[in-house]
Design a protein that fits this description.
The chain is an alpha+beta fold. The protein has 4 helices and 14 strands. Strands 7, 9, 10, 11, 13 and 14 form a 6-stranded mixed sheet that branches. β3 and β4 form a beta hairpin. The two termini are 39 Å apart.
Length: 260
């Protein structure tokens, strides 16, 4: 936490007490987030900045007020989303079918496997191919993890049914014309496939709820595990715990660079 200017002491104490009550948050000089408070006679501007200078949350609190419950919930949601993204980014490939599945990346006619790496300029189009060399029908989700640690589920796409995203034994699924964001930050970007013999849908884990709605929870064990990525003691569960043994994770990655 960094303070600038004259930060209201009551606001600062209230925020520190709230942070100390969050079991999944640990204060550190080299943490993944920085909470910056800039105060003056009119109040305090609060900003949550993730490593890489990505602004995740900000609000202004009047001089005679404390951070509202609504703002605290938004701040909590951003911290939890960052924890999930970091865990998924660092999750090693593996699972019961790890030797039977793979994801290849093709750019300008050159195919790279997961053990290789290529450089893609901003705005470039590329192709992914997911291979299922197992004897089972596998359902899959495709997750994009940006260099800024933001995470989104690309497939199943919005408005589609999770059960429609499957690969039959011995077949592959090509995914054409994926574009690197035009404003993508330079750095390593992951394309991670989560596969399971049952229908899997990670969208509820990452999508914010509509105003007035409760956040939808995933129904399967892996979705539940990922959605509650930190237990009540604030400790990270092991990768293959809480029902995730049935899931196989396969990845490919590339380095985002400025246009050539």
């Amino acid at each position: 936490m960094v303070t600038k200017g004259q930060v209201n002491a009551k606001q600062l104490d209230d925020l520190k007490q709230w942070i100390s009550a969050q079991s999944f948050v640990q204060l550190s000089e080299s943490g993944d987030f920085m909470l910056q408070l800039t105060g003056d006679k009119n109040g305090t501007n609060m900003e949550l900045v993730e490593s890489g200078d990505a602004l995740r949350w900000n609000t202004n609190v009047a001089a005679n007020a404390l951070l509202s419950d609504g703002d605290k919930k938004q701040l909590q949601a951003q911290l939890q989303a960052g924890a999930r993204s970091k865990l998924l980014r660092n999750m090693p490939d593996g699972g019961p079918l790890s030797d039977k599945v793979r994801i290849d990346l093709e750019y300008q006619g050159v195919v790279t496997k997961a053990t290789e790496e290529t450089k893609l300029p901003r705005g470039a189009y590329y192709k992914l191919t997911i291979y299922n060399n197992s004897t089972e029908v596998l359902y899959y989700n495709l997750i994009n993890i940006l260099s800024t640690n933001e995470t989104s589920v690309l497939l199943p796409a919005p408005g589609t049914q999770a059960q429609d995203f499957s690969i039959r034994p011995g077949l592959s699924v090509p995914i054409d014309s994926i574009q690197v964001d035009l404003d993508a930050k330079p750095g390593k970007e992951f394309m991670r496939v989560v596969l399971s013999p049952r229908v899997i849908d990670l969208r509820p884990v990452f999508e914010p709820p509509a105003p007035g709605d409760k956040k939808r929870g995933g129904t399967g064990p892996f979705e539940q595990w990922l959605g509650s990525v930190l237990d009540s003691n604030g400790k990270k569960p092991t990768t293959r715990s809480l029902g995730s043994d049935e899931v196989t994770v396969a990845s490919n990655s590339f380095l985002v660079i400025a246009k050539e």
